[in-house]
Design brief:
- Helices cover 79% and strands 0% of the residues.
- The protein has 138 residues and is mainly α.
- It has a domain of 96 residues.
- The longest helix is centred in the middle third of the chain and has 63 residues.
- The two termini are 33 Å apart.
Amino acid sequence: MTEIRGEPYPLAEPEATLGDLVGRVAGDMGAMLRDHIELAKEEITAEVKKAGTGAGLVGGGAIAGWTGVLLVSFSAAWALALAIETWLAFLLVGLVWLGVAGLMAMAGRRELSEVDPRPRETMKEIEKDKQWLKEQTN
């Protein structure tokens, strides 16, 4: 993570001219903006990676459920049909695979619910900067 300076915008010397002060304020504002943009990019990148993991789990759950229902269900249902009616065997096996797919989808949904797209650290830094500006103007 980018190192954000603790007191990044020091006060100018008392003998500085108005032009010096305006130049420093413009430079400090630019530096502050760059710091906040960099922090926001890092936070958003981390959240996008987390969202990708959740989406991958949801997609994997769907594929696993579909493949399981199509392939394994047939063999399990035919084996179970040796003991019970064929239609009931297929129904039971299908319900089991739908349960598995549902559990995987819930796991993916839980992962996605933890994604927070707001750049919280940047918001904290902006609040600190607002407070610092208020203190400097008083």
